[in-house]
Design goal:
Tellurite resistance/C4-dicarboxylate transporter family protein; membrane; SLAC1/Mae1/Ssu1/TehA; mainly alpha; globular; transmembrane; 75% helix; transmembrane helix
């Protein structure tokens, strides 16, 4: 009996992971995006190493985090606590598909099928997680404090899914991928349309929160979760337009890059403005106080 309880305790998810939830998967997404950048510069070895690290982390976290919620179920972290951060489950998964399909030759061909499988898992997860998040959102009273910036990941998850589909469409040398071309294009169009449809709703939600309800709580680091979806939507739109031969999507995506840059500048300026007073306070000699 003691041995059995010891085994259960040993495999229990750590409190840190339970508290952080799906935000832990930002590590997977960041590693995947960095691996994609290294591939674009021909650094195959470094890109493969980062992709391997991201894959191992994903295999651990994508099972451990949901298990932690189920084993330690309560209203704070259960289904009623689902929010925009849960979509990082999708973003992390699709980042693997993007990184694998972006590898330089000959690795791109070897990893085409695993990339397709990761994209498929991420696409199905989007439908499941989106339903849970929407259900939680409608299950409680909507107040400014609950309508947090991470809900923009709702759109960002569709954007990175579209980018992964665009990367896979170009992998015509893989037999399995070539068989799924119509499905990839169709799913890409659906996801892009839905993600684009979400943008006005997210903007209206922001106006309601900050302008109409005058919600103010100082600088919120979660504002950075708005920058990534905007940039990813622009990149995904441009790459998908190139893959399917739609020039207007390419133009739209390139223009959106400037919007993403403006959002980055604003949030970066707010971040610096948040910490400058602290540095000034430390720089003042104690004798002058």
């Amino acid at each position: 009996m003691p041995g059995r309880f010891a085994i259960r305790a040993r495999w229990r998810p750590t409190p840190g992971i339970r508290r952080s939830g799906f935000t832990c998967l930002t590590f997977v997404a960041g590693a995947g995006v960095l691996s994609t950048g290294l591939s674009s510069h021909g650094m195959a070895a470094a890109a493969l190493a980062l992709l391997a690290v991201a894959t191992i982390a994903w295999l651990i976290l994508c099972y451990l985090i949901p298990a932690g919620f189920m084993v330690h179920h309560n209203t704070a972290v259960g289904m009623t606590g689902a929010d925009g951060t849960w979509l990082l489950w999708v973003v992390g998964t699709q980042s693997l598909a993007v990184a694998a399909s972006a590898l330089p030759a000959p690795w791109a061909h070897r990893f085409a099928t695993p990339a397709l499988l990761a994209w498929s898992v991420g696409t199905v997860l989007y439908g499941i997680v989106a339903a849970l998040v929407l259900g939680a959102l409608f299950a409680k009273e909507l107040i400014p404090a609950t309508l947090v910036p991470p809900y923009w990941i709702f759109m960002g998850a569709t954007a990175i899914s579209v980018l992964a589909a665009a990367e896979l469409i170009d992998r015509t040398s893989d037999h399995v991928v070539s068989l799924t071309h119509p499905m990839l294009i169709g799913a890409g169009v659906v996801l892009w349309a839905f993600g684009t449809w979400l943008i006005p709703a997210l903007l209206i939600a922001g106006v309601w929160r900050y302008v109409i309800e005058h919600f103010r709580r100082g600088f919120d680091p979660a504002l950075w979760s708005i920058v990534f979806p905007i940039g990813m939507h622009g990149v995904g739109t441009r790459e998908f337009g190139l893959a399917v031969g739609e020039s207007w999507m390419v133009t739209f995506g390139r223009a959106e890059a400037w919007v993403a840059l403006a959002a980055w500048v604003v949030v970066a300026g707010a971040t610096v403005g948040q910490y400058v007073p602290l540095f000034r306070r430390r720089a003042v000699p104690q004798d002058c106080l």
